[in-house]
Amino acid sequence: MSGSLWLRPPGPEGGWVHLGHAAATGHASAAARATTGAAAAGTLPAVPRPRQRTGAAPAADPMDELAERLDALVAAAVHPDEIAAVLESDGMNDEYIRLTYGRRDSFDLAEELYARVPRAFPEPDRVPDPWKVPLTACLLRGVIFALPGLAYVLGAPLLEGPQDRLGLPAGTLTLLAGALIGWVWDQTLSHRAYSWLGLGDRAAARRTLLAGAPAGALLGTAAALAVPGGPPFSYAFAAGQALYVGAATVLLVLGRERVLLAALAPMAAGALLSLAVDLPVPVRAALLVLSLLAACTLALRELPLAAGLRAGARRLRARIRHRHGEGGPVRWRMLRGAEEDHARRGPRIGDSVPYGVFGLGTGLLVLYAALGEVLSGGPAEAVAAPSAVALTLSMGPAEWLLHRFRSGSLAGLRAARSPGAFWRRMLSTLAGCLACYLTVLLALGLTGTLLWPHAPALSGVRVATLLLLGAVMWTGLLLQSFGAVRPAAVVCAGAAVAQSLALLVGVGAPRLVQLVVAGGAAAALAVLVCLLLGRATAHR
């Protein structure tokens, strides 16, 4: 592949990893440096000296001798100008080239050498795979995403009351409104915090989470309160749900999955026990509150307010010293300018909004997959909860397979010799990863349907819709990793709007509408992925 290909591994400490050949006028290629053994980066390789001939007869053509002598350098070059730079660095001026080789200047000589010697790029040095992650870590995140659902099992007796307007259990709409708004907010917050982590500023990431997590909890609670008619305890439950989502966002962004799992343990154990034993209501409430308090406390430990106040006091004292001490007002202005310059280099808030829009679109699509028939007037028994649970649990394997795909792109950049070969290799890698994910998703959906009491049968249409939704979510996440979150957000949000309009107007059968919308979104995202698949810059 022509050009210069680079990959930046995830994380603030990742450096740039060279994957291809550098080509620029006046600079040697990485392949040429590898061939000649040059040690210093940015230096031109030395031109091999002419061999001492044993006989007295000179070479029949000086060009043949030069091409043979520079064979490794010329074969590794990606442009004639690269060869010209090497010739000039060796002291060959235009007069010498005219007298010796009969060419006008170094550029003419370089072009002829480039045409004579076939391309033969050496393999770049092997580097560690920056995308290799353990499967257990990703599976743990998938379990953590799904475990909070057990809180509804444990707290079901607390939500007893008349059914909602759509025949759903009491408080369902209240909890869904709070969860959806909180999910959108925390998707946006997570991206902004991760952006600070990517810049190596963990303190700024913590400040972002400290300000954003409570705001998200307030928004989620307000959204739940805006839904009238729920049982009184459902609003308290929704407030606890919003607090948990904020605390979980803090812990997950900062890489404290095992800590969060420990916080969820009392609630999860109580929920599983309640399936076999009828636990008293106070015990259920106590277990829910215990897990919530544990999660919030552990999140606050990651965002120590006292340490933040002490750090702020230190910064204030430093500013006062700079302002009134050595350097006076000039020093103060320099310090303030440096801080403002750092703030300008930080992530923009607008860059995080598409992630929230993507979360809103996918959240609504999953909601409709579970409740679409009920929301359109069907019986409450038509709730397809196992589909939503399967999609949630599958996010762990999905994350691991995304890393496997990025690892495959690294291997593809090394092995491919043309853009077309690279595209075909990546298409094969994409098909393998997506097929593996959909297989896992189907297994989870079938298992959940078998274990879930009174769950509707997983018919052919339901299976197709589930798999298409899985394809939408996985390809959407892949586009995010390509840096193309905006088109992914537009497609998912558009699909959610289309299904909402069909639901409000009453167009078509709910199952058929879900299938068509999911199929259209999956096809659109597949086209976007294929367009970006062959671009080396998308795999950075």
* Distinct helical segment count: 22
Query: Helical amount among residues, as a percent range?
Result: 55-70%
Computed CA radius of gyration, to the nearest angstrom: 31 Å
What string gives the helices and strands in order?
A: EEHHHHHHHHHHHHHHHHHHHHHH
Question: For the residues shown, what is the average pLDDT?
Answer: 79
Structural class: mainly alpha
Shape by Cα distribution: elongated
Low-confidence stretches: 1-43, 324-344
Please give the order of strands in the largest beta sheet: 1-2
Note the main sheet: 2 strands, antiparallel
How many runs of DSSP E, i.e. beta strands? 2
Cα separation of the termini = 15 Å
In terms of DSSP E residues, the strand content is: under 5%
